[in-house]
Amino acid sequence: EPEVTQTPSHQVTQMGQEVILRCVPISNHLYFYWYRQILGQKVEFLVSFYNNEISEKSEIFDDQFSVERPDGSNFTLKIRSTKLEDSAMYFCASAGNTEAFFGQGTRLTVV
Amino acid sequence: KQEVTQIPAALSVPEGENLVLNCSFTDSAIYNLQWFRQDPGKGLTSLLLIQSSQREQTSGRLNASLDKSSGRSTLYIAASQPGDSATYLCAVRPARDSNYQLIWGAGTKLIIKP
Question: pLDDT tens digits for B30-50?
Answer without folding.
Answer: 989 999 999 988 889 999 999
